Amino acid sequence: MSAKPHRHFEHEMIKTPGPRLMHAVRLKFVQKRVQGGGGKAVNASLNLTSFIDFLIVVVVFLLMSFSATGEIPVDKNTKLPSAEHTVDMVDAPIIAITGTNILVDGVAAGSTRPIEDSGRLMKIDELHNVLKNKRETWKQINPKADFPGVCVMSVDGRVSALVVKSVFQTAAFAGYPNVSFMVGQIPKTQHGGGGGH
Amino acid sequence: MGGVSVDTGGKGGRRALDSEINLIPMIDLFICCISFLLITAVWSQMARINANAQVPGPPDDTKERENVEPEKMLTIEMKADDKFTLIWKSGATVHATSEVPKKAVEFSQGGGLVQKRYPDLAKEIENQCKQYCSHKNDDDKKLDQAILSVDNRAPFSDIIAVIDAVYASKRKFKGLDINQFNVTFSAR
């Protein structure tokens, strides 16, 4: 059996069916779309615009909440009180009272027990010596600068005023008269009244 | 692959009309930034509240001593359970004494510690300051002095609540808001 001869249209009167619209647009992605042909493309491209938008929002949020001062080590059992009219933290020795221990930058510097036992204001000799050494070291490192005399006290909210005042007084005697108390930050109200719940 | 098409116009046979900007490096950069910021993020916001021990410096013999009238100071007595006593003194002279009921607004910020604030005390100090404070001018750097007379058994959170109430009073210094008072403790 002979093969059927292939028919040719001389004048191309009849064209292959297919999409005709948008062929004039000279953009690759438009051409690809309008050409059609076959099934669904094997390699699908994801729309990255929304993903990039999301990344930008996250980066902006994290940049706005970024703190260059770093994290301050606070004992997990210490429950700091909170205040509204606060200032930013400074780089200064941190005197922490945890339980009955007094620590200066994490190093033991006395106990609160003698103060509690005596029931009166006392100078804590060990703390005094540690702070005095710190001051001397600072002065050796910065011989021309004025000593700022700043220290930060990190004290649990339940500690008694007697202990706080004794530590405060000892720090002042050791050359740190500008004592700051570490506190949590509560949002500022308009007239300083009210309170968060 | 993700890209942005840029139509530059032109005809067939030449260089492609629409070029694509490669977005992968930008996404990589964003992911690196996010990772860095997340790792270095500080989630617990700590702040500080100032106090000053008011230790006088050594006497300067080269300077002639002037007879300066002692300034008015505010003493806040928080020894009673139900009230604060505000005393305005200069030296031994008492200018005014008033009492403010100890009305605390309690709140909790997590961690189980119930904290207090004293908005009434803050308001009263602010009102009295208008009459008695010595340093109010915009070019006056000095602060008025507030002395806390605290009961030895009082918890530290109460002291912070009172200091916070004192620092609610603000004034201007060279256009900036500063605290009206400097707080210290009574030695007794």
Q: Indicate the low-confidence ranges of chain A by residue numbers.
A: 191-197
- Main-sheet strand order of chain A equals 1-6-5-2-3-4
The order of strands across the largest sheet of chain B is: 6-5-4-9-12
Q: Got a strand count of chain A? A: 6
Mean pLDDT of chain A: 81
Determine the fraction of residues in helical runs of chain B and give it as a percent range: 10-25%
Mean pLDDT of chain B: 80
Number of helices of chain B: 3
Task: Name the shape of chain B in a single word.
Answer: elongated
Strand content of chain A: 15-25%
What is the alpha-carbon Rg of chain A in Å? 37 Å
Helix content of chain A: 25-40%
Largest β-sheet summary of chain B: 5 strands, mixed
Order of helices and strands of chain A: HHEEEEHHEHE
CA(first)-CA(last) distance of chain B: 75 Å
The number of helical runs of chain A is 5
Unreliable sequence segments of chain B: none
Strand content of chain B: 35-45%
What does this structure look like?
The complex is a heterodimer of chains A (197) and B (188). Chain A has a six-stranded mixed beta sheet. In chain A, helix 4 (125-141) runs parallel beside helix 5 (161-173). Chain A is built from five helices and six strands; from the N terminus they run H-H-E-E-E-E-H-H-E-H-E. Helices cover 30% and strands 15% of the residues of chain A. In chain A, strand 2 (94-98) and strand 3 (101-104) form a beta hairpin. Chain A has helices spanning 28-35, 49-64, 113-118, 125-141, 161-173; strands at 82-83, 94-98, 101-104, 107-111, 150-155, 178-185. Chain A starts with 27 loop residues before the first helix and ends in a 12-residue tail after the last strand. The radius of gyration of chain A is 37 Å and the shape is rod-shaped. In chain B, 22% of the residues lie in helices and 35% in strands. Classes of the chains: A alpha/beta (197), B alpha+beta (188). At the A-B interface, helix 2, strand 1, helix 5 and strand 6 of A face helix 1, strand 3, strand 7, helix 2 and helix 3 of B.
